[in-house]
Write a structure and sequence with these properties.
α6 packs across α9. The protein has about 210 residues and is mostly helical. It contains ten helices and three strands. It has a three-stranded antiparallel sheet.
Length: about 210
């Protein structure tokens, strides 16, 4: 069973980073650098790894979780664990999320194939980033490669689909932007992300309020 503290922390972590559930579940304690606010994501496509900054809100949440869950006397290296310090079971986590969703009365009635899933927090992260950038009058065209690299995409096409998910009042204006197309591959995305610099990247991508 997934305890309340772990479940809450994991949901906020997924929303605050846009990380895949599998990536989050594979995190080791050594991958989470709370002093510098950097997460090392392993098992990326093509065997790569990436390092992403997180914002101060998420840092505080993870520090509280680490203090409560991790002890030098407890064996195991997995970051997100249950009360027995064991890795979380995927099936149990999925069932817990669906039970919580039903209790909260969250559902979709638009004929979609799926009810809200944990994976949808990744989509929410991306859409909220784009919306926040637009409201802050940032150069969305310049930031899209950084978003792609941050989320682990191979090319821009995967990230650009989120433009269609932004609120309707912004969609038309965002669609006017002349975005680079899929010719920009992963290495160029990573380079664009690195060019932002640690502080700028953290401010732009790692400050999703949780």
């Amino acid at each position: 069973m997934v305890d309340a503290q772990t479940f809450r922390t994991l949901l906020l972590f997924l929303y605050g980073t846009g990380m895949l559930l599998g990536e989050a579940m594979r995190l080791l304690r050594d991958d989470v650098d709370l002093e510098h606010g950097i997460i090392t994501v392993r098992g990326w496509r093509f065997g790569r790894l990436r390092r992403i900054p997180i914002g101060p809100d998420l840092q505080r949440i993870l520090k509280r979780y680490s203090s409560a869950r991790h002890s030098a006397t407890i064996e195991g290296r997995t970051y997100f664990v249950n009360k027995l310090s064991q890795p979380i079971n995927y099936v149990t986590l999925g069932k817990s999320f669906q039970r919580l969703r039903r209790i909260a009365g969250i559902s979709r009635n638009d004929g979609g194939c799926y009810q809200p899933r944990i994976h949808d927090l990744r989509h929410t992260f991306a859409v909220h980033r784009l919306t926040a950038w637009y409201k802050r009058r940032l150069d969305v065209q310049r930031m899209m490669p950084a978003l792609s690299a941050y989320m682990g995409f191979v090319c821009l096409d995967a990230a650009e689909r989120y433009l269609t998910m932004t609120p309707e009042r912004l969609r038309k204006q965002l669609s006017k932007l002349s975005l680079c197309r899929s010719t920009l591959r992963v290495e160029e995305c990573r380079t664009s992300f690195e060019k932002l610099g640690g502080f700028a990247a953290k401010m732009a991508l790692g400050t999703t309020s949780v």
